């Protein structure tokens, strides 16, 4: 997996994360200053938590053995320094409180949502590159790397990106006419946003893929989608047509829901892209 940097253009220094299957995901790496502000927010919060944890430990453990007391203090530090970012980023799919405030998110270098193992790797590395050496290692790494990645990002295979980057409007996926009737009656409420995003990238980048990638990825993604959509499409439907029909029908239903909500509020309806 590699990260390429198209030169300039209408979207500035926006990067494209390219997966091993050559699917391009448009992501904008977070700026150095923005990341530092988010990190500072998290560090202040963690310091407050450490102070509170130590105060509780001192009061509760006043009569405890010195060794037990030391173990309690060390355990509290591990929970705050490693446990806080790991748990928070896992539960929120890549956002700590600081990143949430600054509109940032941690994703895999292939554009996938951050997983627990990646959050844990970043948390463990942060204990060394941020806490143990006063952030010097993380600061240097973020400054010299074009995408602002620290050591923990390299170990975990992650990238911090902006969620409020003013991207261009998403392209609409057209409905294959021969599948419109089937799609209108299909049940697809169980589809997850991650699966939809994956299917959408495949359909929109279909012409950029090799024949092998089209076949392999199409079968794999269609298999994931079919687990949440029923009934199956007409026999002989190619994966790209099947996925396009699901995406187009899902968008149509969401636009209808949005229009109904606007009508109930007394405002003009507006369209919504998936």
TrEMBL record:
Annotated stretches, region: Disordered: 251-274
Membrane-spanning parts: 32-52, 64-84, 119-140
Signal peptide positions (record): none
One Pfam family cited in the UniProt record for this chain: RDD
Span of domain RDD: 30-157
Entry's localization field: Membrane
UniProt key word GTP-binding: no
Principal localisation: membrane
Keyword line: Membrane, Transmembrane, Transmembrane helix
PANTHER family, sorted: SLR0254 PROTEIN
Protein known as: Putative RDD family membrane protein YckC
Organism field: Lipingzhangella halophila
């Amino acid at each position: 997996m590699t990260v390429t940097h198209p030169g300039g253009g209408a979207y500035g220094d926006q990067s494209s994360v390219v997966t091993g299957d050559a699917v391009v995901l448009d992501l904008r790496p977070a700026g150095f200053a923005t990341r530092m502000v988010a990190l500072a927010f998290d560090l202040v919060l963690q310091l407050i938590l450490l102070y509170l944890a130590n105060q509780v430990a001192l009061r509760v453990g006043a009569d405890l053995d010195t060794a037990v007391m030391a173990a309690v203090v060390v355990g509290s530090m591990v929970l705050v320094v490693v446990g806080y970012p790991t748990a928070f980023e896992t539960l929120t799919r890549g956002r700590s409180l600081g990143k949430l405030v600054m509109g940032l998110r941690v994703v895999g270098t292939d554009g996938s949502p951050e997983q627990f193992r990646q959050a844990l790797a970043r948390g463990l590395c942060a204990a060394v590159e941020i806490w143990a050496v006063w952030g010097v290692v993380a600061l240097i790494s973020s400054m010299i790397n074009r995408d602002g990645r620290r050591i923990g990002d390299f170990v975990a295979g992650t990238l911090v990106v902006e969620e409020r980057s003013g991207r261009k409007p998403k392209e609409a996926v057209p409905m294959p006419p021969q599948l419109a009737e089937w799609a209108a009656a299909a049940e697809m409420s169980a589809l997850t946003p991650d699966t939809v995003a994956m299917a959408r990238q495949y359909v929109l980048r279909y012409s950029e893929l090799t024949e092998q990638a089209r076949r392999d990825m199409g079968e794999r993604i269609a298999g994931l989608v079919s687990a949440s959509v029923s009934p199956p499409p007409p026999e002989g439907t190619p994966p790209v047509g099947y996925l396009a029909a699901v995406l187009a029908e899902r968008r149509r239903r969401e636009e209808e829901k949005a229009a109904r909500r606007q009508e109930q509020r007394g405002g003009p309806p507006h369209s919504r892209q998936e």
